[in-house]
Automatic annotation (TrEMBL):
Any Pfam family hit: Formyl_trans_C
Domain Formyl transferase C-terminal: 206-306
The protein's name: Methionyl-tRNA formyltransferase
Domain Formyl transferase N-terminal: 1-169
Positions of transmembrane segments: none
CDD domains referenced in this protein's UniProt entry, alphabetically: FMT_core
Amino acid sequence: MRVVMFGYQTWGHRTLQALLDSEHDVVLVVTHPKSEHAYEKIWSDSVAELAEEHGVPVLLRNRPDDDELFERLKEADPDIIVANNWRTWIPPRIFGLPRHGTLNVHDALLPKYAGFSPLIWALINGEPEVGVTAHMMNDELDAGDIVRQEAVPVGPADTATDLFHKTVDLIAPVTIGALGLIAAGQTEFTKQDRSRASFFHKRSIEDSRIDWTWPAEDLERLVRAQSEPYPSTYTFHKGKRLEILAAVVSQGRYGGTPGRIFYREGDGVAIVAGADARTGRNRGLAITRVRTEDGREMGATEYFTSMGGYLTSRP
């Protein structure tokens, strides 16, 4: 089939590579200009450079809503558009233009985790598995019929980076497998149960700020979800920003006020956590490694030279 590819960052790069390695003919690529957004500088393999290396025409757009792009798409005469990590809304006149419509590839097990940063949100929420879904695009965000979907388990120590590597390897088989079904003439696919749908926004630095009223189990997953190369979780100690690089759920139960620097436990320092911490039934978050405002990394037992005082959400 003649394919136009819309995509960005490493997700788009992997999708384009899979298409280039397949029997399909990539006739045009549309991608975003480079961005300085903290999250968009991560996993930033260039779709444009890969396309140019293979002699595929490239259009750079922030949004796909101009007449020039529409005319170029009509000239390309695609059988299908394949999209992965396209960051803005694609209008119906675009996604409905090809003979077979538009196949969107999304790194979540739809209908849950539509929208942005699905792996990070899924890890924070303690999901047992994550995956990749190829679905037909329609008027709603990530809501079209599912053509192919594959899942991988989330391990107890997995970071968002681990989940990225697990799921990015699913892009090629999911995408090419879905295109094979469409090319073979299949038109009926699995409808999404919209009662199970959930939608998530783009993450920002604000979303990495620790709220000590969260349970320690949730905070431990947040730390793993925001591990390198993502912007680390952070809190404030004595008015200065302190990044939390590694932490575990404490063995002991610590009662009192959320954020209290309480007790050395093994290689970590236990912090009281949870909105109902006053009951004394909660585990704490045992911080094991930190980064100070001036960029120094150290173990928590080295940083916290004495117990007492509080970690806070604001300076």
